[in-house]
Amino acid sequence: MARYIIGRLISLIFVILIISMITFGLMHSVPGGPFDEEKQPLPPAAKANILRKYGLDRPVWEQYLRYIWHALHFDFGIPFQSPTETIPRLISRTWVPTIQIGVLTILLSYSLGPLLGIVAALHQNSWIDYFASLLSALGLAVPNFIIALWMILLLAVQLDWLPTGGWGEPYHFIMPVIAYALGPLSGIARYTRSSMLEAMRGDYVRTARAKGLGERAVVLRHIFKNALIPIITVFGPQIPNLLTGSIFIEATFRIPGLGKFFITSTFERDYPMIMALVLMVAVLWGFTYLVSDILYTVVDPRIRFERPA
Amino acid sequence: MERAKAGRVAARREEARRVKRVAERMAEGVLAREHRTLWGDAMRRFARNRLALASLVVALGLICMALFADIISPSRYDQIDLAAVHQSPSLHHLLGTDLIGRDYLTRIVYGARTSMAVALLVQGIAFGVGIPLGAMAGLRAGRADFLIMRLVDVATALPGMLFAIFVMAVLGTGFSNVVLALSVTSWVLVCRLVRGQFLSIREKDFITAARCIGASGARIIFRHMLPNALAPLVVALALGIPGAMFGEAALSYLGMGINDPIPSWGKMVSASLGYVRIYPYLALFPTLMIAAAMLSFTFVGDGLRDALDPQMVIE
User: What's the domain range around A129?
Assistant: First the structure.
């Protein structure tokens, strides 16, 4: 087990390093930098000064090594678009709206999703089952910004109950959270349903019924508990992912969150910021997968690890 | 006694006649077991799936729309008429006109072409890169496998959409860059799939048998291994198409995709966003098209998966 984890950690570090190299290389491979003439005309001496200050006058490999060295000391540089702040401060500031939406989305989809799945499985082929199937198909196949636009057309334009977007008031949460939650909710509902149907066929369920257990106890203690394993292992790892938010939702509803910020950073060629954001998400994903793989063995002791290749 | 013997003789004659009849019919091929193939079975199962069948009709309709865009559409997609800007749907312009007076129906029809073209090119690259790499990894264990799998690790860990946006920002917007940005991570799934299939197939007895009768390496790969790995690849292709369509719509929606004047549904949605209160139809039509395309292609893919994998339990 320890061997497995160490092996995975080493390959994770390797992967992150490669990603940082690709990102860094791509950023510096194209003409045009953050201090280009058309953006702010400067005398040559002043420009050279700025380039020296940020180390942009050095060869790319040296810039890269410097960056990694500083990053290892938790110094990710200074964002060009807001030079009075540090990158972690800027990220933590813009992450707040994203996390608020993310938490509400998780609460909504991780409570309603299983519920819908259970009801659909218990009443297989009833109208509520078909409704659940329809909803999950919609939520899984249709992009969330399309759902968001339909909600705007219905709730903001047709009924005029809500503004089309914006941030700051509690009612600004309603549409983004619903549009964002529909995807994971559908996935969970669909998965719960098939997982429940699978568990309902188990011998232990027949045994539970045969020994005269009430329907409630059978469903909750025997079916649902066993159906829960795949749900936890599949949708648990999605939580960090949901907390990094959706660029599309934020762009649609004009929410000043992490995703919208990433877009402006790429347009402004804010190198330290792009680098930090891409690496942050890659590290977050990497650790999430690692932790979820380890958690598999805890939840389901039947799974064993082989030595990594 | 006599009667019993006569009965036995009659029964024997009857039996002989029946055997002869069966033999004749077998010779005619009437009683031979019906010849069934994986693909024939899959088609029969697919045809029973009404949702998949209906989706196939919609998807084929969209493909026709993309193919015959120049014939269907009432005007040219880049024809600007400043005297007729943002008109509501009417008999003259069935879906109205956009903010600079281009016929909206024409833009919608050509949008199908953009969407399909991106999806097919991205999937083409994904298969062109993924199949050889996956086959190499699956056939030659050891160093080649190790290197390819590390490449797969990196491409898997890349935050897909985030990285595509980043690539677009670096390379600039435009059709070919959209295809490139979406292809960066799209080959991984195909590569993994082929590798896994090859790893399991190459241990099968029929491969050993083929090797024993002296089949060449290429013959084993193309005649014996690839056809057996085909079913999951078809499903991957069918489900990859809506994935790439989403990628194009999403990038264009963020203003990082297709350039004007080429129409793209995603771009039309984002252009309509600022005017959604005044001209809601501008937002409605392209969103409906994106949803229809995504749903129909996804259902066709799901239908194919269910049809091709008889062991899988369908919910």
Answer: 96-260
